[in-house]
Amino acid sequence: MSLQTPVEALAHIFAADVEQKRRWYSPAAEAYNAVRPKYPEDVIAFAVDTAELKTTCRILEIGCGPGTATTAFASRGFSIVAVEPNPDFFAIARRNCELYPNARFHNSTFEEFPVVAASFDCVIAATSMHWVSPDTAYAKAAEALIAGGRLILLWNMVLQPSDEANRRFAPVYESRAPQLLRPETDSAATQDLHLRRSGEIALESCAFHDLQSIVRVVPITYSSDDYLRLLTTYSQYLELDPAIRDGLFSDIGRIIDNEFGGHLALTYRSACQVMRKKL
Questions:
Q1: What angle do CA 202, 205, 210 make, to 5 degrees?
Q2: How far apart are CA 94 and CA 7, in angstroms?
Q3: Phi, psi (5° rounding) for residue 147?
């Protein structure tokens, strides 16, 4: 099986009309807000320190989702303009940032958002850059930045169960949804490859240079219910026929409850890539 980049995997979404793209995550918006993991403090600190951000800096965030990264930066006193096309995420992000008047939100795609040239010190995309049309993403981010401004790419990769849990889940996937049984595309090595490639793509745009990065492997534990809610926030599960998804989740939940004490230990890769706009 050939390895797809995140952009290739989302080709059918890029081909959809604007309204379809806006609503793609709507069924899972509240679950996404509740159970998707946060960005670790040391990863955020690396972003702030490496980008040499001061509280006077103006930040533009691309595709803020429910405001996961927005709150991390707004709570540090930065002024943020966050762009989010999905109306459900937009509402949740505003709710999550009610305590931060320094965060303002626009319900718009980044492609449609009107950018004033050289109006921001930093552009952030937190697990969102692969959702922006590649023809637009880096050129428009660079246009928004002042000379020498920084681009910060944050990534929380797909959570990974232990090898033991994967072995127990494999027969369920084989029976219920064999198209999702893709160990070679979900492996740690493949995730690291995708992270390296995301940095290379940014540099190949010829708009940025001086890439610095950090990757952390973070342990986290989910109850069986929360793990199943987490799965509903991933694209491949959103696309499943509801009857197939219900059967799959019933079997997985039973394994977690009966064989793992009702809680599943996982890890995820959290990464930050910081680069400078070319002069």
A1: 55
A2: 28
A3: -60, 130
What lies within 8 Å, CB to CB, of 244 at 6+ separation is 176, 177
How far separated are the first and last CA of the chain, in Å rounded? 41
What the chain holds in terms of domains, given with CATH numbers, is 6-158+185-217+269-277 (3.40.50.150)
Where do the DSSP E strands lie in 64-172? 79-83, 103-106, 120-126, 145-156, 160-161
Q: pLDDT tens, position by position, for the chain (279 residues)?
A: 233 444 444 444 444 556 667 777 888 999 999 999 999 999 999 999 999 999 999 999 999 999 999 999 999 999 999 999 999 999 999 999 999 999 999 999 999 999 999 999 999 999 999 889 878 999 999 999 999 999 999 999 999 999 999 999 999 999 999 988 765 456 888 899 999 999 999 999 999 999 999 999 999 999 999 999 999 999 889 989 999 999 999 999 999 999 999 999 999 999 999 999 998
CA distance readout (Å), 153 to 69, 247, 264: 11, 36, 28
Q: d(Cα 169, Cα 251) in Å, to the nearest integer?
A: 9
Residue 155, φ and ψ in degrees, nearest 5: -140, 130
Contact 191, 265 (CB under 8 A): no
With a CB cutoff of 8 Å and minimum separation 6, the contacts of 92 are: 29, 30, 33, 66, 67
